[in-house]
């Protein structure tokens, strides 16, 4: 997943209008070259939520990905697996390569990105993730993505950041 600048966004929209077979030496070729250049320069967003191998843990992760909750605790998950919290932390990191807290946050951000793209309001997304106040969600989003959700929505809609 890449952070798409307003320039890259517009270039991609223009590139979608090109014919499948275009002249590489003309305007269309220059446009594609610029798209490729901007893609190389785009900052990657560290967004991934690897799934574990064990079926019980996969089931918990899948349930969480369908409806993330920022307040879901590792102790709750450990209890559902009949494990101690310490064993759960070790198992989770071993199978996903991530600490539970980091995985949970990534899952919440990925959910938020999708929900915002679908046109849901920031307040609605924040509340659906379990935040009591949109400001707390905005703070987490900014820390993870590097911009506020309002800027993300504006950028996604082709407006100024």
From TrEMBL:
SMART domains: HTH_ARAC. Residues 55-155 form the HTH araC/xylS-type domain. The keyword Transcription regulation applies. InterPro entries: Homeodomain-like_sf, HTH_AraC, Tscrpt_reg_AraC-type_HTH. GO terms for molecular function: DNA-binding transcription factor activity; sequence-specific DNA binding. It comes from the Bacteria. Keywords: DNA-binding, Repressor, Transcription, Transcription regulation. This is HTH-type transcriptional repressor of iron proteins A.
